[in-house]
Amino acid sequence: MHEKERHRIILSAVQDRPVVTVIDLCNLTEASEATIRRDIATLHMQKKLRRVRGGAEALTPPPFVGLAGRPFSVNQTLRIKQKQAIARAAVELCEDGDSIIINGGTTTFQMVHPLASRRCQVFTNSFPIAEHLLKHSKNMVMLSGGMIYREQNIVLSPFDNDVTRNFWARRMFMGAQGLGPIGLMEADPLLIQAEQKLIGQADELVVLVDSTKFDNRSSLVLCALDRIDTVITDEGISDKAAAMLEAADVSLIVAQSGAATQEGEAAS
Fold first, then answer.
1. pLDDT for 257
2. Residue 205: strand pairing partners
3. Cα–Cα distance measured from residue 134 to residue 172, given in angstroms and rounded to the nearest whole number
4. pLDDT of residue 61
């Protein structure tokens, strides 16, 4: 990755939380610790961020950190390395000029940092994703119309006359509560309704789920497996879940986060 791209991603990341560690930035950029420390020193000298012990922080802290509300503030801290790796793999599918839809979620939110080095046309129902991309990238951003739900920090509308029908995307990126043989699952009917509209506006559906989501279930099915084009997950996916996707002709991308290796070393 070019230095200028790394700097964009680093400056994007420091707006996401009070302090970003060197390890966090290594995971986001896939650069070495030595390289990241040099980048932080350079940006500190340029007065674009503040160097702190073990990482960096924004000169002006954001008014809120990450995604607010219980579902996000709790989930955002869980399996963070896996989510960052999955998000990086998702952005690797994007090229400058692409029109994409990003559905709100803790894993899809991690796409904002690698997207800092892209120039795409992004449609989202996530207020934090839209705000972050507007402030820290050169992507064109469009928000759906509707009511902002504070706990989930997403914009939903039960009406057909929001701007969703006027946007076409090459790909839609989304997470889910669960993924099983019956399909993609969510918990809320209004969420299902809004997401089905978004899915209808994209040529390809790319699902971002960490490997624990293959064990989760819900009473509501968003779409069948055969509507999904690609699933991106982490190396914790079971052989059974991988076989399920293969049988449904769903492409599988396994993002290597290194978390499983670290957990094994810690246990030994």
1. 86
2. 172
3. 19
4. 67
